[in-house]
Amino acid sequence: MSSVQAAKRLLRKEMKNRLVAMSKEQILLQSEQLTEKLLANPIYKESNRIAIYLSMSEEVQTCGILKNIFSTGKHCFIPRYESVNNSMEMLRLHSMDDIQTLEVTKWDVRQPSEIDGRENALETGGLDLIIVPGLAFTISGQRLGRGKGYYDTFLKRCTSIQKDPPDTIALSFTEQIVESIPTEGHDFIIDSVIIP
């Protein structure tokens, strides 16, 4: 294992501990502040095709953003992870009710099934904006994911397929901001990181 991978593993452990230490109230309060900031962001306002994750309990809660996407007539895409070949696609989500029809993965995350036949963002015009999750961020856009490389790989694919690459925004709790993150060549830099 390289020294960068070892450093990442240590930082992941520290960040998971920080997130577990946050109260439900802190998570909800900061999530509301981050949602307000994102909805006021000109890049978000101008984006029509948006990829966003369905949040786990210790992540920035995305429910308010999802509701806004649907109420403003934007197109919503969510990830479907494939652990077999470590790949990810962004597939169309039609409504808040649609979330309840999705299968629950071993990570306790809802995602479309393989036989769902949903619209694939990269096959039907690409994406304008991707809201990127992570465990840690720097203000300058470095990101530490969960270690599988799903987003780094997908973001590289987007930039190679789309004529105009999508904007990328990360929503970060104050507790997730760090001075620096050990990075490797394949690590994707996020365009902007929003903090409460």
Largest sheet: 6 strands, mixed
What gap, in angstroms, lies between the N and C termini?
35 Å
The beta-strand count equals 10
Class computed from helices, strands and strand pairing: alpha/beta
Put the structure in a nutshell.
By secondary structure, the chain is α/β, with parallel strands linked by helices. The chain has 6 helices and 10 strands, in the order H-H-H-E-H-E-E-H-E-E-E-E-E-H-E-E.
Descriptive account of the structure:
The chain has 196 residues and is an alpha/beta fold. The protein has a single domain (3-194), classed as Rossmann fold (3-Layer(aba) Sandwich). The chain is built from six helices and ten strands, in the order αααβαββαβββββαββ. It has helices spanning 3-21, 24-40, 42-46, 63-71, 96-99, 150-161, and strands spanning 49-51, 75-82, 87-93, 103-104, 110-111, 129-131, 136-137, 143-144, 167-171, 192-194. The strands form three sheets. A six-stranded mixed sheet has the order 3-2-1-6-9-10, sandwiched between helices. The chain has a two-stranded antiparallel ribbon with strand order 4-5. Strand 4 (103-104) and strand 5 form a beta hairpin. The radius of gyration is 16 Å and the shape is globular. The mean pLDDT is 93.
